Amino acid sequence: MTGDSTVPRREFVKAAVAIGGGAALAACLDRESVDIPGGRDDLSTLPDRQHAWDDFLSTDDHGNPVAPRHHAVWLLDLPGGGPPTESDRETVERALRGLERAYERSNEGLLFTLGYSRFYFDRFDADLPGSVDLPAPEPLSDFEDPELDDPDAVLHLASDHGSALMAAEEAMRGERSTANGVEVGAALTDVFDRRERRTGFVGAGLPADNQDVKGVPDGDPVPDEAPLYMGFKSAFEKNQASEDRVTIGEGPFAGGTTQHLSRIRLRLEDWYGEQDRQDRVAEMFCPAHAEEGRVEGVGDNLGTDSGIDDDCTDRIEDDARERGRVGHAQKAARAREDGSPIILRRDFDSTDGDEAGVHFLSVQRSIEDFVATKRAMNGSDLTDAPAIRTRVNNGTLEYTFVKRRGNYLLPPRDLRALPDPRP
Ligand code: HEM
Question: Taking the model in full, what pTM does it have?
């Protein structure tokens, strides 16, 4: 990588994050040259929920929380069998506190969570309490065959600034002792082995700048303003579960949540090649949105909700029979409870493996809430209509392919360092 000023800054920073490591960080620091806000000295004032991010994010003109632009996910293994030691716990907690002192908890600084899989908890004799729903991952439709991820732990890091993200990563790998000028005190890799690193981005301009990748057809079809490769704005405030709704309410892990992380490969040749904009609106939102021209551009005009209402969901079988297609959001909205979705989506795009993809990361009170939402999105109940097939005219399923799945528990902050299942 070079500091070539002809490469647009957004593309450059994304590429640096995807590559990672000290040289990429140095190049990125040259380019970004921003002051990253530091963390707080009194860490006791931080929220108990690791997933409490929304109050620390910036908002768009309508008041929707805006996701941080750059993301990294680490899959971590604890070497050896059996439970961790007290000293392992202290090291992990020291490392995480180091990050909290180094960076403001915000999109300008750094947001992170650390979660644990069912395979981690299997190291202990005791089982998780009934108040935690954390099954091992499994395929969630009969038309997918994903690899099932089984690391012990998963770290998710996010920031608007690629340089902040990468410096935090370097510190957590023990490649540097400071981050943002603050001594961090320990590295996560003092305890864990890193098995895999995934990276990604979300936000206006980033997908368009990075569309020269397998899965996106030639001709630069991704609109400049699109926050995601598929060309529409997602995660409107009112189409998200609230942080309260996704928080575990009782038992020792009260204040925690569960995280599902899948890797989805995108194949957008037909999405952009065979379909026109009307078709895309119908398949992403619902046919009525297309007919009534409700979505302008990438959908910013929609405000704080996608406009998928009871009318859309009530007419889904009629749409399947009479209009010959159903929309992604229209199907997923059938999993709402009390009028709101039950998962909080924090997904982002990626060029990992040199192909366009999505790391679909969501948090929800139980993994069953994710499974129920995915079931609604599969639309397998709609294929009686002649035009609707498992993957055709069935929302976005023709263009999205699930390659991996994993489930994790994000404990409350005070139990985030290698928790016992019965703390
Ligand atoms: C390729 C990946 C995906 C893209 C680009 C995408 C995009 C979108 C868009 C544009 C909307 C409408 C706007 C909004 O409500 O925010 C939406 C809604 C939604 N999507 Fe997705 N989505 C993807 C995958 C998924 C997956 C894997 C799930 C989980 C099963 C999911 C669950 C939902 C839910 C729950 C809603 C809101 C439904 C409601 O309003 O009740 N999406 N998505």
Answer: 0.97
